[in-house]
Structures are given as structure tokens and as C-alpha cells.
């Protein structure tokens, strides 16, 4: 039995209509929005991000607290109860987590009641959209008050030490998108004077780059600057973060950030953001943190209307692994978005340089200089959205320079219409590798003779009834979908023998309407491979995402010899690591081990087998 069939069989036995398995107890529970969006997410966060053992946590059956001190019977169910040890007895209760879908005021009132009626010292309210962290404080005169916490302690950490993280202690986040969703909802509801998603995004991006800069420039045993201590006044936290942004981030990268760029959110909101992010190592996140933040904060109004959907990191890695760019090769993304392709391609090239470094005995200083030199000289990006171009520019700058190669332009315009700096840096026919996920859709057509006439695919093509051959006419289309023109522009960017990896609607290779596109490619290039992706791939991007069925196409700019036969790699990816709700497709295999169903990483391995003559 194949591995996929084993998983499918396991999935059938594991599925129950309208139910999911509780992450902690393994019990079947009703798949309510509260369970899916709050209880299960926070349970996983406690274990994977804050290191609490499952044996210390009770979810099902639910732990209960009294309604009043005199009650013998406990009747209030707690969504998640965290204990000091695995005995899980009343006196050892440490933390209660309330996940009801209430507003903040009602949620906090319920949480305080649970804390009053239990031995728990820490309380969490989390409804999937935002959170509150409280500490119960007893006073000598018998009073009981509640202290807001910027974060919760990790397992084994003193409450007093919250925020005192050394760089080496930061954790890889388990679900960064859920964290950003929490931040976005809190800021949208509580920050005065900022109501538009773009303005919120600008603030979170500024703070995110403070976080990334701090991670990269803080020694392993040094305490991070991006932190919020338990008894630290919010104004002091704000003062420290503003100094980081104004003196470090803006000072070092004054060609990226404008003098007018500022962190303007209030001190309390800033503490909320810092407290939620301080536990994590963003630069080691399993997905592009900036891309995730942008998806959550900008929303579909700005992105979806322009056909912008951000490529999942596993697909980006697969494309880069297949094209396998080398150090010194020129690399371009002409629709770079938040920079995901460029960042991962840079990491790929740097790993190869590290191997070279060992073989050639370079010093650490030499290697670092060569890495930055490659980033600056060989990586290029274009995006017509000025904010997206700025995000990529800043991200490239913080990760390893290369910011001078990113430009705000419309890639489809005639190059002579670009700014002189872009024209001087990005030339047609000069790139070894082009990687991109261009905007696509019939709702954003490209019009105008000046633009369309640059492209052979801007003209109408017609099939000769006698020969059956499809040939270009002299008549321009009135308009063309952007992905068709991007395909040809990407090929124009390549040098002879250069290679392209591009995400396109599958219809381009399946509908008779686009037969001329396939003819165009077969006559001028070698199609190296086509990888069909599942519909869920972009379904989670933005509000509802897009149902567009896409494929990833790999092309070499080499004119095939007449009659030449060559291998075209074909793959059909069934699982991409998440479903249409964005939830990880985790199933138990036949031995009961949890496995993420994701075929994408296998594609590059199979491609290389085919290229090397394997089966």
C-alpha cells in the first residue's frame, strides 16, 4: 500500500462528521468555531510555543471550578486548565484559559470569576481574535487585584521574568498567522486615529522589522531589546522600541525608510504587540513572517482586487529547489510582493556559499562580505505596489542587504518608461533565473497598444485550417490577462539558457482558448515541468482567497531542435499542507503517528530523479 493510500485510509477512520480530535486529550469534540479558532489553537500554542507538557494540561473532560466559595460541587467548566505538575489536583492549578466567543469586557469578567473561584494565579482570555493575560495578586490587607501581563510565562519560568528573553531562548512560532490575526483585531479595535488596514499594516511592519533587526543583531546570550517586562511601565517599553526604530532600523537603512516613517501607536497597544511577539524568533518562522503579516493586515480589499495572492512557503521552496540557483547567477522576481521568493532564493544561495567557504577556507568575515556582495549584486525585485516594494526592500536590507535591487515599477510597461535607476539595474535578457507568482485574473486586464505591442502574446493568434498550425496575426488584442503578458516578459528577462519558475492558472494549459500560448512556448522554449496544485493552495489567502486552480511551470529559454524529444516532468499535488480554512492537514498514519499531509516537498526530489534519468 502506498504512503498516500495509508494516509487516506487513516483519514477515513479518523474522521467523524462535525467533530475533531482535541489536541491535548485526543478525545473527539464538536468542531465548533470556538474549538477550531480558539481552544485548539491556544492548546497547541501552550505546548509548542510555551513548552507546557500535555500531562500538565486538562481540556477533556473539562476541569471545573466552583460558582461560589461555599459550593461543594464544581460547576463552571474551564476550556483549558494548566497545572504545576502532572497530578492535576485543585491546589496545583496554575493557569485557566477561557475561550468563549465573548467581547473583551464580558470575557474578562468571566475570567476574573474563574480566578476568584480557583487556585490559579494566571488567567487567559482568548477568543481566536484577541487575548488578555491576567495575574491574580493577593495583598497583605486581604484585597485581591488583577495585573495585566504582556505575555504568559513559559513552563518553568518565573512570572517575574516574563520578557527577559535571551536571544537563544526565542521559540519558533507554531502558528504565526494566528498571532498576527490576534494583533490585527486588537489594534483595529483599540488604536485611536488609525482605522484603515494600510495604516495598521504600516505600523505592524515597522514593529516587525524592529523585531527582526533585534533578532539578527543580538548575541545568543544577550537579552533582546524587543521585549516588555511584567512591571515595566508601557511608556518605557515604547521609549525603547522607538529608539530601536529611529536610531537603528531607520538609521542603518535610511534609503529604505523615509524620515517621516514613525511608530505612532500608543504605549498600551505597543505593549500588546511586543508582549505577543517577544517569545518568538520571527526569522526562523516556517513561513515568511512579513508575508503572513501583510496578508492578515492588508486584507482582500487592497490585495485581492489586484490579483495578489502570496505564495505559500513550501511552494516557494519547491520552485527554488528545482531551479537550484547558483552563487553569482542573476535572480529576478518581477512581481515580488513581500519578497518571499527573493528571501528564500537568497538563503538557498547562501547555503551553497557556506559549503564553498569550508572547501576554500574562507574566514567568517570573508564569507559574510561575500554573502552581502551576492545579495547586492545578483538579486532583483520589482513590484508596482509601492508599499509592497518597500516591504521587500526593508526585508532584504535586514536579512542581508540587496535593498538596492528592489524597485517600484510596473514590470509590464516598456522598460524605457521605467525610472532610470531601474533601467540601469534591471536589463532585458540578463537573468539566469526568474521566479514569480504574477497577478492573474480576467478582472484586471492589461489594455493599450503601447503595452500590448511589446509582446507576441499581445497579438491575436489564428489556426490555419489547412495545416492546423497556430500562428500570430498582426491584430492586437483589445486587452490581455496580466499572467499571459507576465509569462512572456519573464522569458524576455532571461538570458539564453536561463530558467523560469512561474505560478499560472491551470486553464492556460488546459483550455483551447489558450492553445496559442502553448504553441508560443513549444516553439521558443523547453517546458521542463508542470506541477498541478490543489485548489486549497490559495483558498486561504485573504478573505476567502481564490478558488483558482493553479500550476507551477518550469521553462528553459532554449529553442528546441526540430523533432527533438525531451522529458517534461509532470506532477499532480494532492496535499499542500493546509485545507481551505488554512488549518494544517494533520492526520494519524496507520501506526498512530501524527503526520502533516504535504506532497509539495516531494516534488523537487522526484524532479531531480527524472533529470538524472531515474524512474
Task: Give a concise summary.
Helices cover 37% and strands 18% of the residues. It folds into three domains: 18-159; 176-284; 301-444 and 482-574, Rossmann fold.
Could you explain the architecture of this structure?
It is a single chain. The protein is α/β, with parallel strands linked by helices. It folds into three domains: 18-159; 176-284; 301-444 and 482-574, Rossmann fold (3-Layer(aba) Sandwich), CATH 3.40.50.150. The protein has 18 helices and 24 strands. The strands form seven sheets. The protein has an eight-stranded mixed sheet, sandwiched between helices. A six-stranded mixed sheet has the order 3-6-7-8-9-10. Helix 13 links the parallel strand 12 and strand 13 (406-408). Helix 4 (176-190) runs antiparallel to helix 7 (267-277). The longest helix is centred in the middle third of the chain and has 21 residues, at 197-217. It is globular. The two termini are 19 Å apart. The model is unreliable at 1-13 and 300-307 (pLDDT under 50).
Amino acid at each position: 500500500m502506498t504512503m498516500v493510500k495509508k494516509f487516506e485510509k487513516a483519514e477515513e477512520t479518523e474522521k467523524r462528521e462535525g467533530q475533531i480530535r482535541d489536541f491535548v486529550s485526543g478525545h473527539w469534540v464538536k468542531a465548533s468555531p470556538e474549538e477550531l479558532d480558539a481552544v485548539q489553537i491556544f492548546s497547541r500554542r501552550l505546548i509548542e510555543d510555551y513548552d507546557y507538557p500535555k500531562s500538565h494540561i486538562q481540556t477533556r473532560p473539562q476541569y471545573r471550578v466552583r460558582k461560589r466559595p461555599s459550593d461543594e460541587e464544581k460547576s463552571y467548566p474551564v476550556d483549558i486548565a494548566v497545572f504545576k505538575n502532572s497530578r492535576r489536583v485543585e491546589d496545583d492549578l496554575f493557569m485557566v484559559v477561557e475561550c468563549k466567543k465573548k467581547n473583551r469586557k464580558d470575557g474578562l469578567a468571566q475570567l476574573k470569576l474563574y480566578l476568584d473561584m480557583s487556585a490559579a494565579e494566571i488567567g487567559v482570555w482568548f477568543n481566536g481574535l484577541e487575548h488578555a493575560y491576567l495575574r491574580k495578586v493577593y495583598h497583605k490587607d486581604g484585597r485581591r487585584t488583577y495585573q495585566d501581563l504582556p505575555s504568559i510565562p513559559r513552563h518553568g519560568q518565573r512570572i517575574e521574568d516574563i520578557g527577559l528573553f535571551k536571544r537563544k531562548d526565542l521559540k519558533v512560532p507554531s502558528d504565526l498567522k494566528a498571532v498576527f490575526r490576534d494583533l490585527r483585531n486588537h489594534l483595529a479595535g483599540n488604536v485611536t486615529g488609525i482605522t484603515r488596514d494600510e495604516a495598521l499594516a504600516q505600523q505592524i511592519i515597522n514593529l516587525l522589522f524592529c523585531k527582526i533587526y533585534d533578532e539578527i543583531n543580538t548575541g545568543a546570550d544577550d537579552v533582546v531589546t524587543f521585549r516588555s517586562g511584567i512591571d515595566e511601565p508601557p511608556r518605557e517599553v515604547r521609549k525603547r522600541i522607538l529608539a530601536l526604530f529611529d536610531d537603528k532600523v531607520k538609521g542603518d537603512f535610511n534609503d529604505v525608510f523615509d524620515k517621516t516613517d514613525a511608530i505612532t501607536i500608543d504605549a498600551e497597544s505597543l505593549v500588546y504587540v511586543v508582549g505577543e511577539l517577544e517569545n518568538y524568533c520571527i526569522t526562523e518562522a516556517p513561513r515568511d513572517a512579513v508575508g503572513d503579516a501583510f496578508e492578515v493586515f492588508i486584507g482582500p480589499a487592497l490585495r485581492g482586487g489586484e490579483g495578489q495572492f502570496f505564495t505559500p512557503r513550501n511552494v516557494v521552496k519547491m520552485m527554488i529547489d528545482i531551479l537550484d540557483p547558483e552563487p553569482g547567477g542573476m535572480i529576478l522576481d518581477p512581481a515580488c510582493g513581500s519578497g518571499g521568493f527573493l528571501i528564500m532564493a537568497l538563503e538557498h544561495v547562501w547555503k551553497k556559499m557556506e559549503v564553498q567557504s569550508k572547501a576554500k577556507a574562507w574566514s567568517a568575515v570573508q564569507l559574510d562580505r561575500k554573502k552581502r556582495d551576492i545579495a547586492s549584486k545578483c538579486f532583483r525585485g520589482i513590484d508596482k505596489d509601492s508599499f509592497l516594494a518597500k516591504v521587500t526592500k526593508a526585508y532584504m536590507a535586514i536579512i542581508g542587504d540587496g535593498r538596492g535591487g528592489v524597485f517600484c515599477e510596473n514590470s509590464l510597461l516598456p522598460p524605457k518608461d521605467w525610472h532610470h535607476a531601474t533601467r540601469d539595474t534591471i536589463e532585458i535578457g540578463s537573468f539566469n533565473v526568474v521566479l514569480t507568482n504574477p497577478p492573474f485574473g480576467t478582472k484586471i486586464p492589461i489594455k493599450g497598444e503601447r503595452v500590448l505591442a511589446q509582446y507576441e502574446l499581445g497579438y491575436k493568434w489564428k489556426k490555419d485550417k489547412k495545416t492546423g498550425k497556430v500562428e500570430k496575426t498582426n491584430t492586437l488584442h483589445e486587452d490581455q490577462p496580466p499572467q499571459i503578458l507576465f509569462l512572456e516578459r519573464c522569458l524576455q528577462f532571461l538570458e539564453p539558457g536561463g530558467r523560469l519558475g512561474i505560478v499560472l492558472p491551470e486553464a492556460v494549459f488546459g483550455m483551447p482558448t489558450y492553445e496559442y500560448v502553448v504553441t508560443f512556448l513549444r516553439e521558443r522554449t523547453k517546458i521542463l515541468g508542470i506541477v498541478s496544485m490543489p485548489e486549497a493552495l490559495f483558498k486561504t489567502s485573504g478573505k476567502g482567497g481564490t478558488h483558482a486552480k493553479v500550476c507551477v511551470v518550469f521553462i528553459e529559454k532554449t529553442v528546441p531542435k526540430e523533432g527533438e524529444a525531451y522529458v517534461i516532468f509532470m506532477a499532480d499535488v494532492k496535499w499542500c499542507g493546509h485545507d481551505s480554512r488554512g488549518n494544517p492537514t494533520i492526520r494519524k498514519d496507520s501506526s498512530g503517528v501524527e503526520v502533516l499531509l504535504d506532497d509539495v516537498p516531494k516534488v523537487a526530489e522526484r524532479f531531480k530523479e527524472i533529470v538524472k534519468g531515474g524512474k
